[in-house]
Amino acid sequence: MKRCICTLMAFICIIKIYGQEAPPENWFNLDATTDQILGVSTEKAYSELLKGKKSKTVVVAVIDSGIDVEHEDLKDIIWKNTDEIPNNEKDDDGNGYVDDVHGWNFQGGSNGENVAYDNLEITRLYRAQKKKYDGVNGDKLKGKKKKKYQAFKMLEEEYENKVAEYRQNLMQMQLVGSLIKGAFEMVEKYLAPKPMTVENVLKIETDDPQLTQSVTILQELFANGLKPEEYHTTLKEELEEGVKHFSEGLEYYYNLDYNPRKIVGDNYSNSKEKYYGNNDVIGPDAHHGTHVGGIIAAVRNNTLGINGIADNVQLMVLRAVPNGDERDKDVANAIRYAVDNGAKVINMSFGKGYAYDEKIVNKAIKYAMKKDVLLVHGSGNDGEDIDKKDNFPNDKISKKKYANNWIEVGATSWQKAPMLPANFSNFGKKEVDIFAPGVAINSTVPGSEYKPEDGTSMASPVVAGVAALVRSYYPHLKATQVKEILMKSAIRVDEEVASPGSGQPIPFSELSVTGGVVNAYAALKLAETYK
After folding, report:
1. Into how many domains does the chain fold?
2. What are the distances in angstroms from CA 158 to CA 79, 119, 351, 358?
3. Which of 12, 165, 257, 470 has the most crowded Cβ, counting Cβ within 10 A?
4. CA dist., res. 449 & res. 443, Å (int)
């Protein structure tokens, strides 16, 4: 979850964002020298390097929750399978997918029904193993059987701790929401007909203990940057979304009795199965994928919404990520579909702490590597060092081999050191390759609307957009060369920053392989030198 959830004084944490200065509009495209903001210098690249230059259309596959293909800022750049006749219920191009005009949905059934929510992988694994170990006495086991049983008990403990954590956070959010709602209602009623302002609240003098408590709560909120009118416009929604998140977690993510896979109708145990799903690439909730797609390539300079990074891109839509953890089989098939249908860059803004069938995903990554396709992946939002903790999928495709077509991305904010890295971003001197803007990124959302979002889910498409831009203007470059260019041209930050998660001082250079932030201008200049 992208909000600050604390166990004590939670309402203060929730509104921390209100006390921060808002970033400049379109900040992720700005330049450190020209604009004093460490964006990726997209606008500078277009004005100084790309004027008059020709480019080749690059297909970027977005493996995500789906995309609103009718969005005003995206509809003109959605990939079209020209070999497929729309809506004739035939597989015209013979690729095994019927009416796959804009991509494919591996989270749907042949009857048109779709998976909206799914478990987390830990729940699926625990459910499967729980049946196996029910009634087993671990003390009587020996050797490998005992080790497997001990691993199961560790999985069980983590699962139960997560369920307890969600229950506690749900109660906390409900309590916080109720306190703040009650405080605003009581003070507004007391002040009426005078308006709710900071000054009017500070003037209240009363012996009523309930009103005193309400005034104290509002004073704390205002002292931390909340404006009175923001309760009704944004904070109320934030609190409701927090309650919804934890409620959904208990109802779907960690619910052992919930398993929606029957909707898809595949043989889930057969990871080699490819031909299932449907052509509904929007799905029941395309918010996340639509936001990602806009960052990569929302039509530039059309007086609408935002400017995406790459100006000559088609977005291929592959739905494989529900509200919950993605399934390895779906991810592998989505990668293969993208490769087989012409994508040169694949964005993957998802991840999880456990894998069900890592081998099938690794085979797909190898296939993409063989076919010269670049894979860009968000590192995750747990504020953890993923050199020390599992994060799937990743570039380790065998015991000794790593994929050289893979870029792992951490997130930065618009603020300077020490607050440059996003406090939620995962990091790793070995596992994370590069950082990119990922806080308060304004982009497209369904219904031709726009909204700022936070996450390495936003940082990953920034890098994918820069990669697509380089491949578009320098189409002779291989995926491995594009990765090398982005890594070598990253803007190094030689300053101490607050480490994500802990806030402890750490050199920014220790957070990733490059110790830098991706930069379109520098990448294009370096690409010019590659023959």
Report:
1. 2
2. 42, 15, 18, 20
3. 470
4. 8
Same domain, 433 and 285: yes
Q: Which residues contact 483 (CB under 8 A, 6 or more apart)?
A: 374, 404, 405, 406, 407, 433, 467
Beta bridge partners of 59: 314
Q: Encode 277-314: b = buried (16+ Cβ within 10 Å), e = exposed.
A: bbbbbbbbbbbbbbbbbbbbbbbbeeebbbbbbbbbbb
Single-letter amino acid code for the residue at 514: T
445: exposed, middle or buried (Cβ count in 10 Å: 0-12, 13-18, 19+):
buried
Edge-first strand listing for the sheet containing 406-412: 103-105, 313-319, 58-64, 345-348, 374-378, 406-412, 434-437, 516-517, 491-492
Let me know whether 186 and 238 are in one domain: yes
Q: Cα(264)–Cα(262) distance, rounded to whole angstroms?
A: 5
Phi first, then psi: what are they for 154, rounded to 5°? -70, -40
Report the alpha-carbon distance of residue 54 to residue 299 in Å, rounded: 17
Nearest to 336 by CA among 313, 370, 312: 370
Which pLDDT tens digit goes with each residue over 135-183? 899 888 999 999 999 999 999 999 999 999 999 999 999 998 999 999 9
Overall residue count recorded for the chain in this entry: 531
**What gap in Å lies between CA 186 and CA 371, rounded to an integer?**
64
Phi, psi of 340 (to 5 degrees): -70, -20
Are both 139 and 236 inside the same structural domain? yes
> 472 and 380 share a domain?
yes
Which residue, among 364, 315, 346, 322, has the nearest Cα to 101 in the 3D structure?
A: 315
Helix (H, G, I), strand (E, B) or coil at 434: strand
CB 376 within 8 A of CB 467: yes
Distance from C-alpha of 411 to C-alpha of 517, rounded to nearest angstrom = 9
Query: SS3 of 374, please?
Result: strand
Contact 119, 285 (CB under 8 A): no
- Residue 172 lies inside a defined structural domain of this protein: yes
Domain extent for 217: 122-253
The CA angle 262-165-231, to the nearest 5 degrees, is 95
DSSP 378: E
Last residue of a domain, one of 253, 278, 311: 253
pLDDT tens digits for range 356-411: 999 999 999 999 999 999 999 999 999 999 999 999 999 999 988 999 999 999 99
**Do residues 301 and 399 both lie within one domain?**
yes
